[in-house]
Amino acid sequence: VAETASTFAELIVADATLKAAKTKEEKINLLDTKLQNALAMFMNIHSRFIFENRFYEARKEGLVSEDKITEMMVEAQKEGYQGALATYHPYFWAAKLHFFIDDVPFYNFPYTFGYLFSLGIYAYANQKGANFEEEYIHLLRDTASMTTEDLAKKHLNVDLTQPDFWQAGIDMVTEDIQMFMELTEEFI
């Protein structure tokens, strides 16, 4: 939840910039940037989570060899990216510092949660319009004093255990994908 304000602000700026874009090329570039971010959150960090989870399970059995770790990394990337990559980064586990922060396991997962939470808030804000600002300020003030579930219930009247909130944010990314596909259709 610590990234909520910055991610929410990024979404506002990205959409405002996209609306102000004058050319098709500008729109394509801006959407590409937004979609790269979504890809990182939905697929890259998911593959990291899969890898880390499997690594900790394997580690319970003893030392894990470099070859096994590398194999687990590739398998996690294949699963996390749903086979969408042509090549893999087998030594990503060695190149990414986050895997070596041993006092914070699953370091990457909160980024995806925060991204999804911010997307959901942004979708909610778009529905509420100008009336949302005061609610948002109160939500931010309470972020360190209650659980995310309680925060969403109190300030957004949303039950985070239900899929609607999350789906609203994902739908926004889906709309960006559709717009990107329409704008780039002539290049395919």
UniProtKB/TrEMBL annotation:
Cofactor note: Binds 1 zinc ion.
GO molecular function ontology, one term from the record: metal ion binding
Keywords in alphabetical order: Hydrolase, Metal-binding, Metalloprotease, Protease, Zinc
Domain of life: Bacteria
A Pfam family hit: Peptidase_M3
Any one biological process term the GO annotation gives: proteolysis
Required cofactor names: Zn(2+)
Peptidase M3A/M3B catalytic domain sequence ranges: 1-170
Record InterPro entries: OligoPept_F_C, Pept_M3A_M3B_dom
Family: Belongs to the peptidase M3 family.
Name used for this protein in its record: Oligoendopeptidase PepF/M3 family protein
Protein species of origin: Enterococcus faecium (Streptococcus faecium)
Organism lineage string: Bacteria, Bacillati, Bacillota, Bacilli, Lactobacillales
